[in-house]
Design a protein that fits this description.
The complex is a heterodimer of chains A (480) and B (95).
Chain A lengths: L4 H9 L5 H14 L6 E4 L1 H13 L11 E5 L26 H8 L3 E6 L33 H8 L5 E5 L6 H7 L2 E4 L20 E5 L2 H11 L17 H4 L8 E5 L9 H16 L3 E5 L7 H16 L18 H12 L2 H14 L4 H23 L4 E5 L15 H5 L6 H6 L3 E9 L2 E8 L5 H13 L13
Parallel strand pairs in A: 2-3, 2-4, 7-8, 7-9
Antiparallel strand pairs in A: 1-3, 4-6, 5-6, 5-10, 9-11, 10-11
Helix pairs in contact in A: 2-3, 5-6, 7-16, 10-12, 10-13
Chain B lengths: L4 H10 L6 H19 L33 H5 L5 E2 L2 E2 L7
Antiparallel strand pairs in B: 1-2
The chains are: A alpha/beta (480), B mainly alpha (95).
Chain lengths: 480, 95
């Protein structure tokens, strides 16, 4: 699987490669990578069936014909268990497909399973999954990042060339950075959220993880576009992301965001990201020092808004219609409170309680409304910056992957892992994490952000960096 | 801010979440730390700033008033652990 997914799909369509063989190879690799604990559900029968259907009429298959992939287990898959890595949904089998799932299947991609995540996508380390922590292929004592940690680990380990993820505060970009792959979070509204289990609805966006900008472009092309089933889905036309890959960065003005190189950022990570930026400069980009002072408020604003929306969204898990139901409830209140106590893990409960607090009478204006005002200041700050530059850049995460268990007892330390990623979600902008080298043998990610709907510009810059580096081609020992 | 026993009970009641006695101390400490973190927003000058609820001040569009799903009652009820006779069931609420 060293060629890009479009070229591989072309071979499937012309009959020189069988989709079934690609599926079998992915299934075998999944078996070999079991120690990563990255898959919640392996769907070997489903994968073989889908692959055989493509092989029966390969010429009619789509742009991703026969490409094996995993979906983050937050996307509803018809007839295939969808757990959100929560006990609450441990046995939930959706009667419908998410739009992202439907579109990738229509393009010919073959789902081999569902990838682990932090429970309900709440986390930055994939340690809150009810099936236990996922391990980083680069160092199994380290986390893969989160919340799309299973997706990132499986792509980095070469099990599949592409995976879906979701990004509410960095959940595609940060695990992509920790696992040395490319992760794209599109503009809010660019990809349908229909069938994606809701965490924070004004921030959630589906994204893709892959080993190159080109593979991300092909996957995004398959899922982007208006969907009447998601009222926040945007009707504006979808750009040609594949064509954009060749645009380069000559003449592009890249704002190097001072706050993204702040006190909490490991100096070695910051230095490595500057090395990557110099490569873009050598490719013709102009680097410009930029300050966005409101970004210092992004973490507190995010940790008001995201938990508030989560507390509301997760109210639906009441033991009545689907999901876990407490046994022998004494009365209705007992059914609700015990179902939720048994079904949710510690981090989800923490965020529901925090969200309930900031929305509660007496605190709503001081916390929730104030956070929404700060959110506008942050969005305005980005808009001001983009009046002068084409892209904004900094480290995706303040550190490389940390050790499993290192931050689990300190929520504030864990939340600080998102310091450079959450602001982009608050403003609804697209951003990408691109492999930018290594510190102490662990991958570093360069984050690039762009104005709304300028995903093509991000992919062009990511492709330009790939042309002047080989960081994206590095593979973890044991998974080559 | 300090989260005391009665505040925790109030939040748990609003969130319909039973909290085990062994978890109370840790949750109160965590929530105190987290309200401290988000409390930093109070220092930001937001006078005259309109709250932003969605990126781009997005407003929800009305969907055409047409049936798209059809009757899927059986498939949906099958997801419940306690559906009977075409209804969801809950513990008795009327004495």
């Amino acid at each position: 699987m060293s060629i890009d997914i479009a070229a591989l799909a072309a071979r499937v369509r012309d009959g020189t490669v069988r989709a079934r063989d690609l599926a079998e190879e992915a299934l075998a690799r999944a078996e070999a990578a079991r120690s990563l604990n990255a898959l919640v559900t392996l769907d070997a029968d489903g994968a073989r069936g889908a692959a055989d259907a493509i092989d029966a009429a390969p010429a009619r298959a789509g742009a991703l014909a026969g490409i094996p992939l995993v979906h983050k287990d937050l996307f509803s898959t018809r007839g295939l268990r969808t757990t959100a890595s929560s006990r609450m949904l441990a046995d939930y089998v959706p009667p419908f497909d998410a739009t992202v799932v439907e579109r990738l299947a229509a393009a010919g991609a073959v789902t081999i399973g569902k990838a682990s995540l932090d429970e309900f996508a709440m986390g930055s380390s994939n340690e809150t999954a009810d099936t236990g922590p996922v391990r980083n292929p680069w160092d199994p004592t380290c986390v893969p990042g989160g919340s799309s940690g299973g997706s990132a680990a499986l792509v980095a380990a070469g099990v599949v060339p592409v995976a879906t993820g979701t990004d509410t505060g960095g959940s595609v970009r940060q695990p992509a950075a920790f696992c040395g792959i490319t992760g794209l979070k599109p503009t809010y509204g660019r990809v349908s959220r229909f069938g994606m289990i809701a965490f924070a609805s004004s921030l959630d966006q589906a994204g893709v993880l892959a080993r190159s900008a080109a593979d991300c472009a092909h996957a995004l092309a398959a899922i982007a576009g208006h969907d009447p089933r998601d009222p926040t889905s945007h009707p504006c036309p979808v750009d040609d992301y594949v064509a954009a890959l060749g645009d380069g960065v000559a003449g592009r003005r890249i704002g190097v965001v001072r706050e993204w190189f702040g006190d909490g950022v490991d100096p070695a990570v910051a230095a490595q990201v500057r090395v990557a930026l110099e490569r873009l400069e050598a490719a013709g980009a102009k680097l410009i020092d930029v300050a966005l002072p409101t970004l210092d408020h992004a973490i507190p604003a995010y940790y008001v808004i995201a938990p508030a929306e989560a507390s509301s969204n997760l109210a639906r898990y009441d033991g009545v219609r689907y999901g876990h139901r407490a046994a022998d409830p004494a009365d209705l209140a007992d059914l609700y409170t015990r179902t939720r106590a048994e079904g949710f893990g510690a981090e989800v409960k923490r965020r529901i309680l925090l969200g309930t607090f900031v929305l509660s009478s007496g605190y709503y204006d001081a916390y929730y409304r104030q956070a929404q005002r700060v959110r506008r200041l942050i969005a305005d700050d980005f808009a001001r910056a983009f009046a002068d530059v084409d892209l904004l850049a900094g480290p995706t995460a303040p550190t490389v992957a940390f050790r499993i268990g290192e931050k689990t007892s300190d929520p504030l330390a864990m939340y600080a892992a998102d310091v450079n990623t959450v602001a982009v979600n608050l403003a609804g902008l697209p951003a990408i994490s691109v492999p930018a080298g290594f510190v102490d043998g662990l991958p570093v990610g360069l984050q690039l952000a762009a104005p709304a709907f300028a995903e093509g510009r991000l992919l062009a810059a990511a492709a330009a960096l790939e042309q002047r580096s080989d960081w994206h081609r590095a593979r973890p020992e044991g998974f080559r | 801010m300090t989260i005391d026993e009665s505040t925790l009970d109030h939040l748990a009641r609003l969130a319909r979440l039973r909290i085990e006695p062994a978890d109370r101390g840790g949750l109160m400490a965590d929530l105190a730390a987290l309200t401290g973190l988000v409390g930093r927003l109070a220092a930001v000058d937001t006078a005259g700033v309109e709250p932003l609820s969605h990126p781009g001040d997005l407003t929800l569009r009305l969907a055409p008033d047409v049936v798209t799903e059809g009757d899927r009652a059986d498939a949906l009820l099958a997801l419940s652990e306690a559906a009977q006779g075409g209804y969801y069931t809950v513990p008795k609420v009327i004495e």
